[in-house]
Amino acid sequence: MKLGIYAGTFDPITYGHIDILKRALKIFDRVLVLVAKHPEKKSLFTAEERLEMVKEVIKDIENAEADKYCGLLVDYLRDKNATAVIRGMRVVSDFEYEFQMALMNRHLYPDIDIIFFFPSKEYTYLSSSIIKEVFLLGGDVSKFVPPYVIKKLEGKYRK
Length: 159
Description:
The chain is of the alpha/beta class. It has one domain (3-157): HUPs (Rossmann fold), CATH 3.40.50.620. The protein is built from 6 helices and 5 strands; from the N terminus they run βαβαβαβαβαα.
């Protein structure tokens, strides 16, 4: 059974993330969406809140599941006996960072493969940061995130 690990912060999860997940499921038997807790990154939602959001949003997607992890991705891969990492690539500016991370992860765990997916064109400019900013300023993000995520954003910004 081919397992792909789709790692990211998902702060919050967007339709762009879901698009990548569905593309990955065409190749992998199972995809685990791994919510990363990055010590240097300031997130709006806690890792637990992000995991709960991801689980809710993907609950009807067959062969998709979610987990969270704090630490080196390669350690998680070893624990799960997985050898494939799924990453989304939106724009050229993503390439340099993703390329560096891919090479470092391969250095730390030579058996892994990093597979890049490009989202549908309507999601290429979409990021969680943009979603948070537009929502905070009163914009409509309903075309870019599931209704459940909007409720969670409202809970954070409109208390």
